[in-house]
């Protein structure tokens, strides 16, 4: 008789943070943002919401970039995307180089990703389809990675575990500890320790959905960390702290929404950037 198979059931735990919905970065020029995010990366401007000149929402699978018009903001780290067809991506990025001359735009091909830099210096790490790493998805925002000070990853991991009941693991990436916070089944928040000189926080934010909405709120409120009582479905906080002594370890505004928020799981339009008027294929407008 063969012995029973043993499974690690903890690997299936999702945790309380359900979804990373958007990264919010102010940009001063919607034209340049359109060239980079839509023409270059091949993403889609949301056709239903924020269609004016004061904000633009860019769809990336089930997540978004929110790009309000204002002084440029820079994320201290990078945003990870899954984008199909590396060759087509490289061609699109090459095609917009001249249009973005004079900005911080750049791109480079690496072994496992293409790194694209937006006109204001934000780094977007573009990966090819990889179900083993990112799930069976064609287009997605699987992670946001932040550069954090030395000796902060452990405290950050403890913060998300204690406050948000999130599965967290600590890994060593070539001497750079990373706290990896699970977001749903296929997304992550990553906090990578670095020796780089800290960059001043400029007000950008991320937005996440949580299943248990009230208990994280109470734990944040106990530590006087709530910075905005937005409405019934949302609140915000700014500082990630050591849960043992409340010492600030990293600053990034979190927009916390409940799963009763009207925008939760709103279907997003994602076009197939390979379609063109000259080489049009019926039935292939949407990416999926």
Defining traits:
288 residues; 2,3-Dihydroxybiphenyl 1,2-Dioxygenase, domain 1; eight-stranded mixed β-sheet; 5 helices; 16 strands; 34% strand
Between the first and last Cα atoms, what is the distance in angstroms? 45 Å
Per DSSP E runs of 2 or more residues, the count of β-strands stands at 16
CATH superfamily: 2,3-Dihydroxybiphenyl 1,2-Dioxygenase, domain 1
Please give the CATH class.
Answer: Alpha Beta
| Structural Rg | 20 Å
How many separate helices?
Answer: 5
The gist of it:
The protein has 5 helices and 16 strands. With 288 residues, the protein is α+β, with helices and mostly antiparallel strands.
Describe the protein's architecture and organization.
This protein is an alpha+beta fold. The protein has one domain: 2,3-Dihydroxybiphenyl 1,2-Dioxygenase, domain 1 (Roll). 16% of the residues lie in helices and 34% in strands. The protein contains five helices and 16 strands.
Layout of helices and strands:
Blueprint: E1 17-24, H1 30-40, E2 44-45, E3 57-60, E4 63-66, E5 77-82, H2 86-95, E6 106-109, E7 114-117, E8 123-127, H3 131-134, E9 140-148, H4 153-164, E10 168-173, E11 176-183, E12 187-193, E13 205-210, H5 214-222, E14 226-231, E15 234-241, E16 248-258
Parallel strand pairs: 1-4, 5-8, 9-12, 13-16
Antiparallel strand pairs: 1-13, 2-3, 3-4, 5-9, 6-7, 7-8, 10-11, 11-12, 14-15, 15-16
